[in-house]
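notes to self, project folder thing:

trying the whole complex as one job this time. last attempt i did each chain seperately and stitching them together was a nightmare. two parts in total, labels are on each line so i dont mix them up again. if this works i'll redo the older ones the same way
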Amino acid sequence: MIIRTSVHQTHFLIPQEDHPQGPESNFRLREQVCVSLIKQCKNLEEFKQAHAQILKFGMFWSSFCANNLVATCALSDWGSMDYASSIFQQINEPGSFAFNHMIRGHVKDMNLEEALLMYDEMLELGVEPDNFTYPTLLKACANLPALEEGMQIHGHSFKLGFEDDVFVQNSLINMYGKCGEIGLSCAVFEKMEQRTVASWSALIAAHANLGLWCECLEIFGEMSREGCWRVEESVLVNVLSACTHLGALDLGRCTQGSLIRNMSGLNVILETTLIDMLAKCGSLDKGLFLFQRMAKKNKMSYSVMISGLAMHGHGREALKVFSEMLEQRLEPDDVVYVGVLIACSHAGLVEEGLQCFERMKSEHGIVPTVQHYGCIVDLLGRAGKLNEAYEFIKNMPMEPNDILWRTLLSACKVHQNVEMGKIAARELFSLNLNNASDYVVMSNMYAQAQMWHEVAKIRKEMVSKGLTQIPGFSLVEVKRKVYKFVSQDKSYPQCQGIYEMIHQMEWQLRFEGYSPDTSQVLLGVDEEERRQRLSSHSQKLAIAFSLIHTSQGSRVRIVKNIRMCSDCHTYTKFISTVYEREIIVRDRNRFHRFKDGSCSCRDYW
DNA sequence: ACGATAGACC
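result (full assembly):
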């Protein structure tokens, strides 16, 4: 029980007879005084004084005091790991408590390797790790990320009998998730006998990390069904993010509703995620409303608002928000600038975009990444400045990637410049990515130019390379459920009704002057077959389904994985008049809001 | 003394 050496008790000034319970109680009292001295420190200066006092009174030899010194110095906001290390080194035989806190301090400072080295030292000295050691170590492995070390540490914790510790298990789910090992995350989760909110949260985050959005929502549903419905910010952030990616506005709004009901305030992260969800699910006005009322905006809040406006083609407003950000003295980073440049390119603001690009380099000292170059190629290309775009690529200080050439190629297709298109395609195909949709774009361009011989050549090449196109799909949410439509798919229920509706729609549209644009349909030689394929594009199926299952006058929202074809664009404009519906489509790049026969993109896309 | 969250070129 008495570990302290009796020698140091000679320092005590209080006479022993005043303490009927003996020297042990006296010592305890002094320890308490020291700890409260440490706890009162508000900065490193005060702390150093407390440290000096403790040394002076010989209380450093109390491991209780020494441990407290290390812990406080390592973990306080004002702390210093250098100073904590110097104290730590003075401890005669540090135990797991001191080691744990040193490890935590290093993790807090993001000196993750240092944390792992500390653990090595701990093992070498024969100090036995405890249940508090492993969660911290696993966090270090998660943030590095370091799978090998993580697995080793997993093994160690298992050997020491901590495999049933819920904190260790939660940390393991998190660590495997951050290392991209989703299977291992799930395996740990499955084996758990008791789960806490943190376990669910870590599992959802692991799926979000890999972009497995549907799974995120499924797990969230399961979590709620199991009665684990406590409102947890980190869970909701991932759920909202999943809604953003899937375009599930209703579910997102539903989540927002539960936020409002169950929380007294939203933190910046949650609020930013919510705004992002609203903007990217087609409810830009609501996102903007929340953004304007936000009490504390940071760089990220501005960033999501700028790219949200950009996606809707509101270039001028995006630039306004950007200058507001600068007025607030928030320093833009490279990602913010990507948003700004997209805003310019989608709104056709060529001069402004080029100016922003220069400003980014000169005023904010940001070295452009390949993404920024991509934005400029898009900016020039969309505006029909194809030669400039090509020159721009040639003068880049880095190797252009496939996306750049693809951007140029689609611009060539839009502006029907076959010669430049050939150049872009040559460069793109030389990268040997064997991306079927690249060949399709090229072939469509030839088809538009009526160069049938070339179309056939591309087609042959595709066959010989065994390339098949990833099918385009359209998602539509009806009554909080997301439905997926794939072109020409006839396998889903109610299929009959949808195709009847398609037939009816087309018949009505023709009265208004619509005629199908079959020039870009790659397959099917005869006109009838082409028309068939065109009319069963996934977007049209999704529209038909929505018109059947939603009430008259309500908005239709569709999310696509590819760019909209020009026929679907024209078609949807007609639908918006004939059926008096507002139809909002998020394609791969941006939003199109169809109303009264016209689209918000003003046919610039 | 334990888990933890956001934005990006086609």
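what i see at first glance: The mean pLDDT of chain A is 89.
need to look closer tmrw
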